[in-house]
Amino acid sequence: MSLHTFLIASPMEQFEIYPIISLNLVLNNVIFYFIIASTISILLATAHRGEIVATWWGILTESLYRTVLKTVEDYIGTKSAVYFPLLYTVFHIILFSNLLGLTPYSTTATAELVITLSLSFTLIIGAVLLGSFTHGSLLFAAFLPSGTPLALIPAMVLLEAIATLTKVLSLGLRLGINMTVGHILAKTIIGFIYAAYLDGTSLLILVLPVFLLALFLALEVLICYIQAYIFVFIVCLAIKDFS
User: Which of 52, 54, 165, 220 shows a CA-CA span of 20 to 30 A to 4?
Assistant: First the structure.
């Protein structure tokens, strides 16, 4: 049995949940990295205040701010100012939770379906409840396509309600599955390269795999951003439909 059998862990190891602090309240690694992502989001929003000369940190903050602001304004409309702080915060927490998963010896909070489904359920069902408080029984119009025959109204309302529940599930599952699959593939590729290195493969031969790995990791960074944006985008559509 070769040496790397003992040294290379399973790609699924990064998703194991274990306690870090266990007093009256247990703090596991997933919650710990989720807190770190939230802290980075706060620092990103406040670090460049009062600066006259633009810095890369300030440019990054403004770019993310304008991206989320334009999305919220375009798809929610006149009520965007009410929802923007919440969606801006959600976008940053998801983005930095995704990115933290790419750092060595860390875990990805957004790869846990309990977190992603909780976020999607809270936001979309919250939009539905808010719409019910605002519009009352008129909210059922959102579940009824125009021109529906009278006899089909109950069935169509039921189907649209099921479609909304499906949207909640797909929103949470999409984020969690994308983060899980991408990170597993990245760690698997790294494991193969490391195993080849331990078996004495020439560094010259490993240049190409390492280069391809770097391209893949750059793609993973882009996917982290895209998944955070898609999450906020779909929530914006739900708010537009029901509020």
Answer: 220
